[in-house]
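User: Study the fold:
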Amino acid sequence: MYDVIVIGGGHAGNEAAISLAKLNKKTLLVTGNLNMVSFMPCNPSIGGPAKGTLVREIDALGGMMGIITDKTTLQMKMLNKSKGPAVRALRAQSDKLEYPKEMLNALKQTDNLDLKEAYVKKLHIVDGEIRGVVLESGEVIESKIVIITTGTFMNAKILVGDTSRLEGPDKQRASVGLSDHLRDIGHETFRLKTGTPARVKRDSIDFSKMELSPGDGFIHHFSFEKEHLRVLDKEWPCYLIHTQPKTHEIIKFNLNKSAMYGGQVVDGVGPRYCPSIEDKLVRFSDKARHQLFIEPESRTLDEVYLQGFSTSMPHDVQEEMIHSLPGLENAVISKYAYAIEYDAIDSRTLWPTLESKKINNLYLAGQVNGTSGYEEAAAQGLMAGINASLKLDNKDPFILRRDEAYIGVLIDDLVTKGTKEPYRMLTSRAEFRLLLRHDNADIRLTDYGYQLGLISDERYHNFMVKRINIEDTIEKLKSKYITPTQEVRDYLDENGLMTIKGKTSLFDLLKRQDIGFKQIETISDEQLYLTDEEKEQVEINSKYEGYIKKAISQANKMQKEYKITIPKNINYQEVNNLALEARDKLDKIRPLTISQASRISGVTPSDIQMLLIHLKKYET
């Protein structure tokens, strides 16, 4: 008897399994191929806008993705460096062969965790409650909780031109039978589609026709545990090119041969924010060209990834398309592109803990819930694992608010609004993105990770030192004033800075865009012994103080709504004057708080007022 069985060894499943095992739960991870755990069938990159912050949050809570990324990176760069801190994001090119190896090592070295290569046919359910899983072999393995993290494998079909075959990503077996079983027990499913570009042999490319796109040239890190960081002997470069008029001609002439436009994709909805190249040409017909990135896949592979060139065209058309691109005229294709269509569940049938509303003790996490991307999957897996552990211990669930983490935004969007297309985390989805920055993920979430038991005493001690250093420095700068002496004026004039016109605190002086920590230390004639990260925190808190205070005030108002809870067993038919649409959607989604109810599409402020009146009666 296991405490928890996790189905699927992708990014969601591995985070769930390791977190459960670290929390002393006897855990079994069942996956079809252990050598493919956390494999990257699409782009071997981690991070990017909003996604990079998700990875930092996973790490701050005690998850694995940041650590494994730091160990296997080929190149890192900070995106949006010229913009405000709310949208800055770290992105890494990972080694697609080393990443799964490092994750498998982590799984094997985790106590309380067993690994098994097998395919699950259905769930073992007794009296409407989970009792384990049934394998294809007929073997029954018992557990108290099951977490499904099957990614894009359920009833997966690979689509190329007018052909299709039942197969998962990268020629892996599809998972057959499990989605039928989920429908049988009350979960609605729908078809989604995604795809991947061709891979090209590196030595067949003429890089002289491409624009170099290097990394930042110095060490970044996703994990706050920096001892895992790889010291690169060199950074592997990326390159930028653009589609050509000839490329567009080829695609338009052969559009009916694409799986999407030729009729192969009947029900699957593709990702809006990462469309295929033929989809880009149809949807953005006014654009003369589209940018593509040539990205490394591994130190030990002679192939590159054509970022932005996903397609489901036949192989002969793919060759024409690729050979029309600058530097790729003689390119040798090592793997052809394909689209993949698969089953996902309606995420509105889940509680915010990611537990099923249909079957007690069943959790679902990752792309099976309709999301797109490794980072979104890993975040869900970690949260599902944490909440499964808490339920076994009869403790309150762990639910992050929208003002606390992108993870909170992600899960709230899924269980409240649902999705009809592969959901991608974007900075625009977060109302409080100035509070949810890449740089302060540890300050926001490490306390939670430590309280849950996923952060070590040593790491928490180091975090507390950092936080105290930041807080003490802010107080010191606020309490120390300078006057515009001739010496200070001379320094400002010599360095092209604005003159101080009156008595000013160092904290207020730091607010000015032309003054940073180096100038503060010079003007005050005092060395502030902080790390670069600590200085960054102090500077952001100074320069954006007004905006941060406003965001916190707005978040506090939302928290009041979070505190007004709605009983799980409420009968919405008894709520007077609710609109019919609101009644139906509230009954289906069954929000746990007024805050969540207010974000349901079709539920108006008037409906919320009627619900509040009813809850006051309910209390009495």
In short: The chain has a mean pLDDT of 91. The chain has four domains: 2-193+341-451, 199-339, 458-547, 564-619.
